[in-house]
Specification:
The protein has helices at about 75-80, 90-100, 100-110, 130-150, 175-195, 205-210, 220-230; strands spanning about 5-10, 30-35, 40-45, 50, 50, 60-65, 70, 85-90, 115, 115-120, 155-160, 200-205, 235-240. The chain is about 35% helix and about 20% strand. The chain is α/β, with parallel strands linked by helices and about 250 residues long. The strands form four sheets. Strands 1-13-12-11-10 form a five-stranded mixed sheet, covered by helices on one side. The chain is built from seven helices and 13 strands. The protein has a domain at about 120-245: TIM Barrel (Alpha-Beta Barrel).
């Protein structure tokens, strides 16, 4: 069973090639990505063990939603090798504690490629301005380490509703929420560009997941594209497409 299978497209695609024959659907282990230049490119799928170490994405360091737990980055790498994965996502705490060379050595030991890393900055109103600035400073410290370790792709999901962390703060209607999120993304974009990093923004479109608050928010691919354009972040920000949520 697949959990959270993702495709990247838009500005995350580089070196576009001519569109291949798509008759009959996608070939196994390949993906086709629509690039910003309205051309197509084809890339091999990277079979990645989806390990999440972000405490607000998942309660524990765990592997997707399968019920398996990996207490360390090395354990995740060992599991990925054992079960035939080509890559694993990064445990950023391991990177911060041991440095990029240790991460690369671990991947080499288990014959793996870099997958993705978590993006620590909350762009929507689930973070206060003070929390956003603190997370941005954290990311500025992590960004060169991520680049040096080879983990240059990051992932972030946009909550499809307004959810202020402070009980006294009112839920934001769509347009002021959009402006706040675009402003925050515009502050992140230079850090991404400076270190050659890319982040994919995931829209959560399932009706039952988004109509749970007074004000909804971005929940379509078109909405994510508009946000990226409003933040002038096309060079470093694209779309994470999650078949579990769209």
């Amino acid at each position: 069973k697949w959990f959270g299978t993702s495709l990247w497209f838009g500005s995350l695609c580089s070196q576009p090639e001519e569109r291949g024959n798509t008759q009959g659907g996608w070939a196994p282990q390949t993906r086709e990505i629509l690039c910003a230049e309205d051309t197509w490119c084809q890339r091999s799928m990277l079979k990645t063990l989806n390990v999440s170490d972000h405490p607000w994405a998942c309660a524990d360091f765990n592997i997707g939603t399968c019920g398996h737990h990996a207490d360390s980055f090395e354990e995740a790498c060992a599991l990925a090798q054992k079960h035939g994965f080509a890559a694993t996502n990064l445990h950023v705490d391991f990177l911060r504690a041991h440095g990029p060379e240790a991460v690369k050595a671990m991947l080499q030991r288990y014959g793996l490629q870099p997958g993705a890393a978590r993006f620590p900055v909350k762009l929507t109103d689930e973070a206060t301005d003070e929390e956003f600035e603190a997370a941005l400073q954290q990311f500025e410290a992590e960004a060169p380490l991520l680049a040096a370790s080879g983990f240059t792709v990051l992932a972030y999901h946009l909550l499809p509703w307004s959810q202020p962390t402070e009980a006294a703060v009112a839920s934001l209607p769509f347009h002021p929420h959009f402006r706040r999120t675009a402003t925050r993304l515009s502050k992140v974009a230079p850090v991404l560009a400076r270190h050659g990093l890319r982040v994919g923004l995931e829209n959560i479109g399932a009706f039952g997941l988004r109509r749970v608050r007074q004000h909804d928010f971005i929940h379509t691919i078109e909405g994510v594209r508009a946000l990226i354009a409003a933040a002038s972040a096309e060079g470093s920000v694209g779309i994470k497409f999650d078949v579990f949520h769209w």
